[in-house]
Request: fold
Amino acid sequence: MASSNNDHDQVKGAGLFQRLRGKIVKFGLMLKKLGQDDPRRIVHSLKVALALTLISMLFYFEPLYDGFGIAAMWAILTVVVVFEFTVGATIGRGLNRIMSTVVAAALGIGAHRLATLSGNQGEPILIGLFVFVEAGIVTFFRFIPQMKARYDYGLLIFNLTFCLISVSGYRDEEVIRLGFERVSTIIIGSCTAVTVCVFIRPVWIGAELHNQIATNMEKLANFLEEFGDEYFTVSENGQIRGKSSSLQGYKSVLASKGSEDTMANLARWEPGHGRFKFHHPWKQYLKVGTLTRQCAFKIEALNNYLTSETQTPQEVKSIIQGPSVVISSECGKALKQLATSMRKMTKSSSNDPHIANSKDAAEELKAVIRSSLCKLPAADSLHIIQEGAVASLLFEIIRCTEKIADAVHKLASQAHFNDVKPTVTPNQENSVNDGPHHVIAIE
Amino acid sequence: MASSNNDHDQVKGAGLFQRLRGKIVKFGLMLKKLGQDDPRRIVHSLKVALALTLISMLFYFEPLYDGFGIAAMWAILTVVVVFEFTVGATIGRGLNRIMSTVVAAALGIGAHRLATLSGNQGEPILIGLFVFVEAGIVTFFRFIPQMKARYDYGLLIFNLTFCLISVSGYRDEEVIRLGFERVSTIIIGSCTAVTVCVFIRPVWIGAELHNQIATNMEKLANFLEEFGDEYFTVSENGQIRGKSSSLQGYKSVLASKGSEDTMANLARWEPGHGRFKFHHPWKQYLKVGTLTRQCAFKIEALNNYLTSETQTPQEVKSIIQGPSVVISSECGKALKQLATSMRKMTKSSSNDPHIANSKDAAEELKAVIRSSLCKLPAADSLHIIQEGAVASLLFEIIRCTEKIADAVHKLASQAHFNDVKPTVTPNQENSVNDGPHHVIAIE
Reply:
């Protein structure tokens, strides 16, 4: 439309062409942005392409079994469905696929033999019955939450393989060959996918979870560090507050539960890599995540007062301003330091001074509220209530920050993070504070 | 362990046996509970079993192509992977699978022909190149958010089919036959799955979304209806408050975003059924869901004060008690009526009196705060602040409830819900209130 506005002489076809070109350019830019936002997406696409080309060429040049057919097909199919973005997801799918194929193939062969024993008349009836019973049970098992979390794909493949093998209608020897072919090609396919996934620029989902938890803390910290200035000073201009991106970042934390649970489940499939050991305390990450989310809920409530239309007069606000700004920014700093020490995988107690500062400020704020807030004219009562609500939320946020700090310290000792200053003798007071967590961790 | 405590004479084997039996019984009880919680799970398992038995027997008795083999395998495979719990998910997977197989098979045959034209030397190189380029591009497309939401499975199958067909290494006629077989068996499998899914006790994901949105509103309503009594009266006993299940129900609403988005995406695949037309306004459901979730965040903040350890003395609480209880319970009633009218799919303005009542109570509460809260002794200031925060949250909840009501009214007119009293002339005042939404809806 825009293109034909200026030039009315243009033939319609050219306008259509330009519009199409515009769309293609827009699509191209979108693809470019996708790649720039996370270059690992491009790497992943190339990795999948490589794995598929490898497995295709393997079967093209060197048919493992007599003639091309079912065998190569299953291997290619396996690579396509098993290869996921992260190592954990790929290994999880691969193992699920292999294990359930082995078990189901064995059971399928057994069912087939049992059915053939009953003679020509009984065979189809028995096979139909076996398939019905097996499919019903396995499908129902997929509803068990613990199964669904880690073995859902395995149960699906179990269903599949059992039906394929038992229904095949071959003679016994052929059924065994079919089962063997299926198992071996699926192993070849899974190994190809896992090998390419692990050895070329791997994306470890455990590291992703680790980083996401740290990032989420930083998002909360960004909000808290800016909140004080934003709430107490800019309001006079009458402009809409709280719209800057660093203030809105915390919103994504509110809905992070699902992705964190999935990541922790998949991380358990990953072998040890770098600083992450095989039995890394993934559950403790989920605890830190839950506490971070609870803190985000409080921040969501705080954000309300930031964006609310009813503005408190500056003279009421200024009463609580001093200590409130300190609480908010000190909690922000504490969270930021926790996030940093998590990223560096170091044990740290350096956040304690910030929390202590914020607690001091909280006492000050309480004193201010006791002494002066209710001395304001009664007309200001509602504003007093709003400022009181802000203060009350800030107290909650201190409590949350403390809980997060405790959980991160516990994580640091469970996951054997480095001591930050190994040459200096540990500060006795700090180590006493951390005491109980260390004890729990050693168990 | 418990079983061997009483009877020391027992042989170890019997103890082990009893322990095993205990575990089996426990597992059985868990399965029973799964089925009782949602009997549709049992129905679904039987449906999958039926569909698989049907397709297995079809190919067992009547091999569609010369000899059993690839053909039947693909059909069985299709039933297993396409059959999902809900109609929307099953149709979505089925259509994705069919469409992408058709397009990829055509492209694969083309690529194969192009490669064979280049002679024996060039063929494998060209095929490898085609597979690499196709797999790279399609895998990258899976990162496009709009694609991922609805066509992720289709892109996976596209990858798969293209490789299978182009790599197969057959002569041209055979490749075409392979493509045709794959397409036709996948259509047979998908149709079997969809037919059984739709015609035997179908679970419509659109209806699930509809009910979940209503249920979530009811959960908030339950909290609000009980909150007043719980917060203001029971506290004296010193027992822990806010632990009853109806008060904790809202927690699941906090993390409902992901599942609602998925449901709305899948609901679009479903044909019209009952009161749900093909172009049912699923997006508006998501808006209602978002507002409900925002209200749940406020309730989470309110719940904090319910469970907090610092107890406000009753004389401070009693100042705000009257209007607070009214606001909370009236908002609860308003939400409950909205949920009920959604369930019945009727247009309703009957919630307005409740919102009006809560607004009156809010004015009263503001007056109470203005006149008396700050007259308390200064020692109570901090408690005053806490009660002020509760009052402030209640004001927010009124605002949220109003927004939810507006969104539900808009949904009711977009989705053509029934008028609740078609014989009575519409109340002019109410319809004026609803005016702008009706106008938007008619567009």
Q: What stands out?
A: Residues 422-443 of chain A have pLDDT under 50 and may be disordered. Residues 205-428 of chain A form a domain with the Methane Monooxygenase Hydroxylase; Chain G, domain 1 fold (CATH 1.20.58.220). Chain A touches chain B through 80 residues (CB under 8 Å).
